[in-house]
Amino acid sequence: MLRFIVRRLLTTILVILGVTFISFLIIHLVPGDPARIMLGLNATEEKVAEVQRAMGLDRPFIVQYGNWLADLLRGNLGESFITGQSVTQAVVERLPRTLTLAGAALVIALLIALPAGIIAALRPRSPAAYFATIFSQVGVSIPDFWMGIMLILLFSLTLRWLPPSGYAPFSESPLEWLRHLILPAVTVGIVSGSVLTRFVRSAMLEALHQDYVRTARAKGISERHVVLRHVLRNAMIPIVTVTGLQLAGLLGGVVIVEVIFAWPGLGRLALDAVQRRDYPMMQGAVLFVALAFALVNLLVDILYAYLDPRIKY
Amino acid sequence: MSSLSMTDRHAPAPPLSERRRILRRVANNRLALLGAVIIVLLIGLAVLGPFIAPYPPNEINMGARVQPPSVAHPFGTDDFGRDVFSRVLAGARVSIYVGLVAVGISLLAGTSLGLISGYYGGWADEVIMRAMDVLFSFPAILLAIAIVAALGPGVTNAMIAIGVVYTPIFARITRGSVLAVRKEVYVDAARSIGSADRRILLRHILPNIAAPIIVETTLSLAFAILSEAALSFIGLGAQPPDPSWGRMLSEGRSFIQQAPWIGIFPGLAIMITVMGFNFLGDGLRDALDPKLKQVLENG
To answer: Are A149 and A262 in contact (CB under 8 A)?
Structure first.
């Protein structure tokens, strides 16, 4: 187990190095010179050259990457081209909000998927199972940004139950914070829940057909006991894994939903930066989401190895 | 020499009866059939769009602004008086075109990389797969956004970005499948009679691992169309006045209360299209290979 964790950690470090490289490379694919973009079209050649030197843009690519990486390790991601704000500060401020939204969406996804998937497996011919199957098929095909707009139309503009967009800090008003969180979280949660429903159903079906379930039934144990103690417990292993992977996926899924609901997280930061051509800010936001993504994947793998004693590494 | 060509001709593809069996299983799968019908209808609408659309998609008619659905305008009109139905039809062409090209890029790049990685192993495998791991470590839409941001907004760059983002999936699936068949007798036989690696890969291995790749291609089309819509929605894909579903949705957003039809119909079009490809992909997966799940998970 320890060997597996060490090996998995080493792979993650390699992947993270690769992620930093791609994040760095992307900015260098931008046509034109970052210094000129930053200074605008009217800047003189001397001024551009001066900024290039100051930013280290006149050095070889690999040296630039090395310097950037060294800065990154010191927690310095540079400054915004537009506002001059520290990228690290902006990213650190917004990361918790993105994680909150992704976490809330996951809770909603589980609240939908666990009962729906379990019922669909246990009572395959019931209307509830039928509904769960349709939901799991249709849900994955709904564009989350469209669903968000439809939910705003229904719950904000028509029924006026919830605010259409924005954010309220928890410290100022927990109730307002929650009211602003519900719609974006439900938007992402429904799509994710439909994917999870499918997995919960198939994990339950697989566990239901195992020999130990037949043995338990043969021993005369009540069906309720069989389902809770034998089926559900064993089905939980793949469900936990997929749930973890979903959380990683949700980090990406919230990007566009953050824009629709004006939720000031990393996704919105990244997109605002893209639209303003604020490359350091974009780089920082993309890098941090990818890092969070890699870490969640690492945790899921370790958790999986811990949960399933049959897996040997 | 004749024995060589005989072996080459007979070794690779699965026998016809196998194909018939698969086709029958797809046809018996109601969901797959529904998916296929949706896709055929969609392609028909995309091809015939210019002939059945009542108005040119970009024709502005300020006298008919923001009109609700009616006989003259089945899906209503937008804030420029453009016919939403005609624009949704034109959007189908954009979506299918982007989907096909983007998935074509990932299919070509990913399958080639996966073939090399799985067949040769060693450092080539290590380098390729670690690079794929890195690409895989970005949330898909975020990587696509970053690439389009670097290359500049537009349909072509959106296709490239989506193509790059989905390349690792094809590489992983292909590699996993190559590993599974690499030691098969027909591969050894081809090698022993001196077939070149390129020929072994393309004529012997590729036809035998086509099933999971076909399934992934179908499912990826769904994702590619969704991604294009998302990119266009945030202004990085199709540029105005081109009618892309994502773009129309984003334009309709400001009018969602007064004129919900501007946003509802393009959204429904995206959903139905994606559903079609998902249904067909799932059905094909069930029909082609029950063991496929294993390959996908271990690949």
So the answer is: no
DSSP 3-state of B86: helix
- How many cross-chain Cβ pairs, A to B, lie less than 8 Å apart? 132
Report the residue from A22, A256, A290 with minimal CB separation from B141.
A256
For residue B61, which phi and psi values (nearest 5 degrees)? -140, 90
- Chain B residue with CA closest to A134: the answer is B31
Who contacts B140 (Cβ-Cβ below 8 Å, separation ≥6)? Answer: A252, B165, B166, B223, B227
Between CA A39 and CA A203 the distance in angstroms is: 56
Interval B121-156: pLDDT, tens:
889 998 998 889 888 888 888 889 889 988 888 999
Q: Which helix (H) or strand (E) holds A111?
A: helix A87-122
Q: Provide Rg for chain B, Cα atoms.
A: 22
Q: State whether residue B162 sits within 8 Å of chain A by CB.
A: no
Q: Is B225 on the interface with A (CB under 8 A)?
A: no
Does B145 contact A274 at a Cβ distance shorter than 8 Å? yes
Whether residue A27 and residue B150 make contact (CB cut-off 8 A), yes or no, is yes
* CA dist list (Å): B139 to A19, A90, A202: 11, 20, 25
| Distance (Å) of CA A34 to CA A77, A122, A286, B131 | 15, 59, 18, 26
Q: Report, at the CATH architecture level, how domain A97-307 is classified.
A: Orthogonal Bundle (1.10)
Contact A216, A226 (CB under 8 A): yes
**pLDDT tens column, B33-72:** 899 999 999 999 989 988 888 888 888 888 878 788 988 8
ipTM given for this complex = 0.84
> What residue of A is the nearest CA neighbor of B267?
A146
Asked if A293 lies within 8 A of B263 by C-beta distance, the reply is no
Q: In residues, how long is chain A? A: 313
Describe the crossing of helices B155-181 and B140-151 by its angle, rounded to 10 degrees.
130
Band (A249; pLDDT cuts 50, 70, 90): confident
A37 touching chain B per CB within 8 A: no
Closest-CA residue of chain A to B143: A286
Residue A10, chain B, CB below 8 Å: the answer is no
Going from N- to C-terminal start, the domains of chain B cover 48-297
Chain A within 8 Å of B45 (Cβ-Cβ)? no
> CB of A122 within 8 Å of any CB in chain B?
no
pTM for this model (two decimals): 0.85
> 3-class DSSP state for residue B228?
helix
Domain residue spans of chain A = 19-73, 97-307
Which site among B38, B39, B128, B145 would you substitute to test the A interface, given the most A Cβ atoms closer than 10 Å to its Cβ?
A: B145
Say whether A15 and B133 touch across the interface (CB within 8 A): yes
CATH for the B48-297 domain, from 3.40.47.40, 3.60.40.10, 1.10.3720.10, 3.90.550.10: 1.10.3720.10
Residue A228 is given by DSSP the state: I
- In angstroms, what separates the C-alpha of A91 from chain B's closest C-alpha? 15
Contact flag B138-A249 (C-beta cutoff 8 Å): no
* DSSP state at residue B60: -
Contact call for residues B85 and B263 (beta carbons, < 8 A): no
Summarize pLDDT for A280-302 with one digit per residue, the tens.
888 888 888 888 888 888 888 88
Measured distance CA(A300)–CA(A3) in Å, rounded:
16
